[in-house]
Amino acid sequence: MSARIVDFWFEFASTYSYLAAARLEDLAADRGVTARYRPFLLGPIFAAQGWTDSPFNIYRAKGRYMWRDMERLCGRYGLPLRRPSIFPQNSVLAARAALVALGEEWGPAFVRAVFAANFAADRNISDRDVLAQVIRDLGQDAEAVLAAAASDPVKQQLRANTDDATKRGIFGAPSFTVGDELFWGHDRMLDALDWAGKL
Amino acid sequence: MSARIVDFWFEFASTYSYLAAARLEDLAADRGVTARYRPFLLGPIFAAQGWTDSPFNIYRAKGRYMWRDMERLCGRYGLPLRRPSIFPQNSVLAARAALVALGEEWGPAFVRAVFAANFAADRNISDRDVLAQVIRDLGQDAEAVLAAAASDPVKQQLRANTDDATKRGIFGAPSFTVGDELFWGHDRMLDALDWAGKL
Predict the structure, then answer these.
(1) What is the C-alpha to C-alpha distance for residues B171 and B102, in angstroms, rounded to an integer?
(2) So what's the pLDDT on residue B1?
(3) Residues A39, A10: Cα–Cα separation, whole Å
(4) Which of A1, A20, A107, B126 is the most exposed place for a label (fewest CB within 10 A)?
(5) Residues in chain B closer than 8 A to A49 (CB atoms)
């Protein structure tokens, strides 16, 4: 078990992952905990449960509630929220780009910027040009990052993350793991950080 | 909108409703809020979503997680937890008896006792004798309560609660409403109480 490390499992199409990503770094720093970013894809995990769409679209009452809940929570934390025209978005390219970015110091900032593009600015994060702009806004080389994102090792790493998530019993996003201990949802983020801090 | 009143929508088969019922009265009293108990049945609501069993049984990873999460939360709040032999239990008779009990002062105590029978003592709460014992332990007339629970007006009241829950967009338990504002889950209980307290 890794002491004082929380693995942060996120999916760029996930509303509550947006909330978690926006708040994680400050809360982790306060507790002397390091967050390890693990992008993965919910699509294959949902498909294994028989879902070919977001459960928030399949189960309408739950979806209506989720958007109202997000509105309340974003209000509380001072985060902008604009309901995306497309939900859920295809997040594959963004997740691959994140794996490249997370190999460098600006990774967490990129993750937050992609989430903001999706849920605050209603940009299409499956669009290469949109991602290129996000990367350039962070002062990085968009063409180099996107070329690396299209490489086989990065594609393989995203598949491996998704397989690892499945093996760990992860069924939704965001999730947090501390060793074998699993915490699901933005609602459990502080519990996960506190769990890691106690080790 | 009713000021300083929270409607507490619960289902005796629901694990997180057990947690909520155990903690609600003290937390509401601290905030000068009155909890109005609204037993309902999740069965018809789940059936409308295509589920004929608890989603915690249908989606195994989610179910495994839920029991671990309950273990952690019950530990935190000092509540006993014993995983029931039967899950979910048939809660129809218990919900009808609760409607009778909630017409009197001992209603909330009965609700807590039924949840404890299910989730702390692993008793079969669909068994009339088990419910009779719970009622007697509270110093009440078990035969009179169970006779009233079998009456048409009480059966109708439970159906009306379930219909009302559906109309309000409730899709799981526990839920809390303050006027038209919906809060889902034990995780939102304090938010609901605070919302009512601000009115």
Answers:
(1) 23
(2) 45
(3) 5
(4) A1
(5) 59
Q: Is B36 left (phi over 0), alpha (psi -120 to 50) or beta?
A: beta
> Does the beta-carbon distance from B59 to A171 stay under 8 Å?
yes
- Please enumerate in sequence order all residues whose Cβ is within 8 A of that of B88, keeping only pairs 6 or more positions apart, or say none: B13, B14, B53, B54, B57
Residues from chain B that touch A188, judged by Cβ atoms under 8 A, are 69
Alpha helices in B120-186 (DSSP H): 128-137, 142-149, 152-167
Preceding peptide of B174 cis, ω within 30°: yes
- For residue A174, is the peptide bond before it cis, meaning its omega torsion is within 30 degrees of 0? yes
Query: CB of A1 within 8 Å of any CB in chain B?
Result: no
Question: Among candidates B170, B149, B147, B167, which has minimal Cα distance to B158?
Answer: B149
- pLDDT tens, A149-172? 999 999 999 999 999 999 999 999
**A176-185 — which CB contacts under 8 Å span 24+ positions?**
A176/A6, A176/A7, A176/A8, A176/A9, A177/A6, A177/A7, A177/A9, A178/A1, A178/A2, A178/A5, A178/A6, A178/A7, A179/A1, A179/A2, A180/A1, A182/B65, A182/B68, A184/B65, A184/B69, A185/A16
CA distance B114 to B111: 5
* Type of residue at B109: A
**pTM strictly above 0.90:** yes
Quick one: tokens of B40? 């309902």
Whether residues A59 and B49 touch (CB distance < 8 A) is answered with yes
- pLDDT category, A197, cuts 50, 70, 90? confident
Contacts of B74 in chain A (CB under 8 A): none
Digit-coded pLDDT (tens) for A97-117: 999 999 999 999 999 999 999
Q: Does the distance separating the beta carbons of B191 and A72 come in below 8 Å?
A: yes
List Cβ neighbours of B197 (8 Å cut-off, separation of 6 or more): B4, B31, B32, B33
Query: Looking up tokens 């504002």, which residue turns up?
Result: B181
Rounded Cα distance between A187 and A11, Å, is 16
Chain B CB within 8 Å of residue A187 CB: yes
Q: Under an 8 A CB cutoff, do A68 and B171 touch? A: no
Q: The complex's ipTM?
A: 0.94
The answer to whether B191 contacts chain A (CB < 8 Å) is yes
